[in-house]
Amino acid sequence: MHRLVRRALVVVAVLGAGRGAGAQTVGLADDARAGIISAGAFVGLEFDNPDNAMVLGGDGRIKFGASNLEVNPRFTYRPFDGGSMQQIDINFLTNYRLNNPGRFRPYSGLGVAVHRISVDGSGSANDVGLNLVSGVRMAMRPGAAYEPFLQAQYTIMKEPANSFTLVVGTSFSFR
Fold it and tell me: For the CA atoms of the chain, what is the radius of gyration?
């Protein structure tokens, strides 16, 4: 499991270590226009689960007006022996405005999670929870159609136990 995390971090570092950005870097991370910005896929780990910790999923980014607020719809899937977990999130993210941002664009936010555990032969259980989200996007060259990201999410639920996930992925532009 630790080897997978190290490999994922190396991939993020390699993707983010491209050529130096020019003085006018405008890409997905800096897109201020309202509307659907991107959709992407991710892979990661759920750390509170020692067995079958790998998660897969997809997410999107939708910007509203000239504000710094984005909506981040997200779907997460984790298979395990005899069943699976699915989670649908609606996160509200705020991008940090840095004086000298370089390649990294941090963000954080809150959201709502609908969590479902399905066990073969035993049925399923649903729960609603609260997400605490933090992450960073790596701005690529201007006009790039993709953007790597790293995101941590802690989901607080009544049942089942709370979960902490760390994912690495790439968003692809709709513009």
Answer: 17
Tokens of 120: 């073969």
Q: Which residues does 7 contact at the CB level (< 8 Å), separation at least 6?
A: none
The sign of the dihedral angle between the CA atoms of 58, 141, 144, 108 is positive
The first and second tokens of residue 168, run together, are 């690495």
Rounded to whole angstroms, how far apart are CA atoms 69 and 115?
24
Cα–Cα distances in Å, from 160 out to 37, 57, 130?
A: 33, 20, 13
The three-class DSSP label of residue 162 is: coil
Distance CA 40, CA 153 (A): 16
Question: In this structure, what are the phi and psi dihedrals at residue 102, rounded to the nearest 5 degrees?
Answer: 60, -140
Classify 76 as helix, strand or coil. Answer: strand
Residue 135 has pLDDT above 50, yes or no: yes
Distance CA 115, CA 113 (A): 6
44-103 residue pLDDT tens: 999 877 677 899 999 999 988 777 889 999 999 998 888 888 999 999 999 888 888 788
Task: Give the C-alpha separation, 39 to 45, whole Å.
Answer: 20
